[in-house]
Fold this protein.
Amino acid sequence: MPRRIAILPDAVADQIAAGEVVERPASAVKELVENALDAGARHVRLELEHGGKTVIQVSDDGSGMGREDAVLAIDRHATSKVRSVADLVGVATFGFRGEALPAIASVSRFTLSTHDGEGSGTELTVVGGKLERVDDAVRRRGTTVTVRTLFFNTPARRKFLRSVSSETRAAHDAVATLALAHPEAGFELHVDGTCRLAVPSGQDAEERLAAVWGADLAATLIPVSYAAGAFRVEGFVQRPGEARPTGRRTQLFVNGRPFKDPFLLRAAEAGYRSAIHPGDRPSLFLRIEVAASEVDVNVHPAKLEVRFRDRIGVERVVEEAVRDALGALAAAVGGGGTAGQRGSGAGGQVTHAPGDFFAPVEPAEVGAGEPEGEARSASFDGPLLQVFDTYIVYEAPEGVVIVDQHSAHERVLYEAVLAQLTGAGAPAQRLLLPLTLELTDEELDAVEAHGEELRRIGFEAEAFGGRSVVIHAVPAPHPRFDAGACFRETVADLARGRFGGWANRLERFAATYACRAAVKGGQRLEQREMRELLLRLFTTDLPPHDVHGRATIVQLPREELERRFGRR
């Protein structure tokens, strides 16, 4: 019987390996730029022609190579980074497998010119994986790799390349990602003779973000700095009000290495909780630092994936890091300094400590009585103005603050109700005369499906034959609360699947209820009710936004008023 299993020729094996490492010109760009950075380059210049289909050239001022190392570099599994299995545990360089250069050389017309600063330089010429020439080269220290006619010997692969513009964008993204990873190095990208990206060396992370992502997007970001357990997270996330369903930018790094992980992105989004609209996707730039032994980077041939030893832990820390950054933003918006307002009697100035508006109080609703403890000191003693029976206006040291009463109360109720849903529940107020409501079949199903949550926030309802339900007890968030309308609207929203994009069912329910139970625009509030509402708002986790991600607070700086009136 003839033998059916045979050892592959080296040329075939190289092309198979190339298929894993080099999928398109952008893959070659990524590998070559990573090699330059691993060589200590302070400046990397990249030139593309026709999206990299005809020419890719990467030049650097790194350490370069001697002749023997240069020849070895185009052999598979020849590497300067790993000597033993133990080295894989703590590998800190981009490359370590010794596959990139031979893989690229096997499917292109390949030239490598290098000089390590000693003796003469070296130039190698490789065609389809076969070393054709080794020559002397007169050049400065560093390395230049030129890749021509990528996939010339694998026409099936070349046929599947995308348009020039698509391949150019992919290559640009690859360079931009590495430029973000290494703000200390300078990068240039030239496409068909035109400079598309130029960033100098020695930038900090914020400057590099503005240079690569654009100043407008960078201006919408807030800093992240958080550590817990084995992990540290640094970077930037987008302000909640700036998040949109499309057009976001995301970048994750672990120990300086870019990688992709949809689950970590989801964890970061969970940190926003109710601060953004369901469906909105904030831009994120996060650097995760962890001991090298706690993360496996040897997972994917293109090194696009990593595996964390403590998967749950890193997701939790990323979520907490985002939440911590948003909490700092909320503190800056809510107080930011002294919150003095004019006194009502002597015309003097009453000043509160910076933290007064964030004094710990138990979750409560507007009209539920005076807060206890330190919260009494943050009582907004100055006059409060209600405009259009919808907005509350007050004076702060920095200018005029305008608060949307419905959005603010929605935020207060959401956090109070969520605490009740995740705790023992809220006491219900029993009705002397039970309410009877007619519901649709879908709404009746929703009452049955969400009965426990309804009970936890104070609604006690039971079927009463046909499509009727009887409500025996209700919550009472404020004196103008219409329990019947709130119950009906809440159940209707649940039946229609609104807030369906929310990851947590309890959060979704709390948001639905808060939206329906909050005071509405057009309802007049007393001074005491407005003060209570502001106090409660500034003790929540995210005062600046309601559960839909809309703003609750608009600030009109004093400088802007003075500019408008010609005082500046």
In short: Confidence is low (pLDDT under 50) at residues 80-89, 335-378. The first strand starts at residue 43 and ends at 49. The domain at 341-557 is CATH 3.30.1370.100 (Ribosomal Protein S8; Chain: A, domain 1).
